[in-house]
Amino acid sequence: MAVKKVIRMGHPTLRQVAKEFTKEEILSEETKQLIQDMHDTMMAESGIGIAAPQINVPKSVAIIGIENDNERYPDADPYELITVFNPKITVLDNEEQAFFEGCLSVPGLRGLVKRPRKVKIEYLDMEANKQEIIAEDFVATVFQHEIDHLIGKLYVDRVAPGDLYYNEEFDEFMVPDDEDEEA
To answer: What number is the average pLDDT over the span 157-169?
Structure first.
């Protein structure tokens, strides 16, 4: 179990399409170690999701989990930890929603990204069984963000011009304080 270095925007692995896992690979001890390392890294960085390419492993797996006390996303509802191998997304609702996204591989920035509100994710679980889930609202955005990493995309590729901020300026000018909820 180890915290791995998160590679940053500009590293070529983040722009590769990740290779899919075979059933045998999913069930291997090496993959169990990879998932544990991804989890340890995500927790150390206060993330709510991480994809294998972010720790320089160009394989198609991501984990997502939102704890009650996440310091980066304190208002997010909890979501039980899930591991998705070889995920495929189907949009179920084309209505877009916008959330400010950050990324462990793009430290210090936040950007407003519009994404579909409701998606279905088909994937293989830790036992290599086919599964599917429906994700809505913020969780749908988190899944789309992490699965983008598996096709070589970063959230900054989806930010509209003028909607990218440094974290300090975001906190100062974009986050409403208790006295002004409409800021």
So the answer is: 94
